[in-house]
Amino acid sequence: MTLTARLKNLTAMPTFLVLVALSASHCLNDLLQSVITAVYPMLKEDLGINFAQIGLITLVYQLAASIFQPVVGYAFDRRPFVYSLPAGMCSTVVGIVLLAYSNTLAGVLAAVFMVGIGSATLHPEASRITSLAGRGRRGFAQSVFQVGGNFGGSVGPLLVALIVSPHNRHYVMWFLVFAFLCFLTMRPICRWYGNYLRELKAQVDTRESHAHLPLSKKMTIFAICIIMVLIFSKYIYMASLSSYYTFYLIDKFGISVSASQIFLFIFVVSTAAGTLVGGPVGDRYGRKVVIWVSILGTAPFSLLLPHVGLGLTAILSFCAGFTLSSAFPAILLYAQELLPTKLGMISGLFFGFAFGVGGIASAVLGEFADSYGIEAVYNFCAYMPLLGIVAAFLPDLKKK
What we know:
There is one protein chain. The two termini are 25 Å apart. By secondary structure, the chain is an all-alpha fold. The model is unreliable at 204-209 (pLDDT under 50). It has 17 helices and no strands. 79% of the residues lie in helices and 0% in strands.
């Protein structure tokens, strides 16, 4: 089948428009989330806070956004709620308003906590609905959903630079326009999810309510532990690229800040492309194969990157970002297939764990760079993808 025919098949899915709406909601949500770190310089100047207090703001946000995800997922697994996504966006709206006008550290902490709760609601719930809407194309569905988040997270800081930075922090209120757009994109999602829940309730015997675990309890716990090791290795290396890549380029090659941003953009594009490809490939060849190839397959690029010139650095970082980013849709779907009756909880657990590892890794790598230099960070992190070898121990999930 040609590429055009495959794309035509995918876009002809009855739920394709719902998947596009989910991706758009993810994009707009992550755009709003990214406002927090983008306004740090303004917060530091307005409130006269130090770097330790900036770290406290980050900690509160990360705790709210990561720890509450599996809690929210578990709660809505037990009692599904059609309007869970708009409810989470309401929390984000309150946080954005507080962020625009709070003149105390306590007010800012309350603001980022509310924004974090909004994130903790959207990710497990939207991921659950994406899996349900994806049906036989769940890998493709997850990729479409996640690439929206990648795009939103990368565009947010640029919009802050254009809208807020030339003026003052009150201009953060303009981002409520994106919140309004997010509410609009959630309408068809809520409509479809409501119909789905009504149909599910009307059925006497459903796969969802009588689903059997594909593995024993002991093997399921073992597989989840392996997946956590894989996420740990993936997000430590991703943190080194997303947080410190520009500093590395400036320090090693002496390029300008603006030139380093172009290289960073190339890397961001690679992660979006990898995310979009990983899901459909997993649908075709299996989740385990994609996980194995994407994480361990990043090692040749990561090991070479600290030892090459500027041109090859750009190429290798693109290859590493593309290869590594293809892993997460497959990892998430593998985990959901382990616990098919707990889609929200397992989505929240792995999204939250990924956020937490990424946040902690960024802080630790910053300390490491201060002590040993930015190049040492890349020499150390280059070995993290080798942990992908543990994917060999993942049990095969047989499709019934």
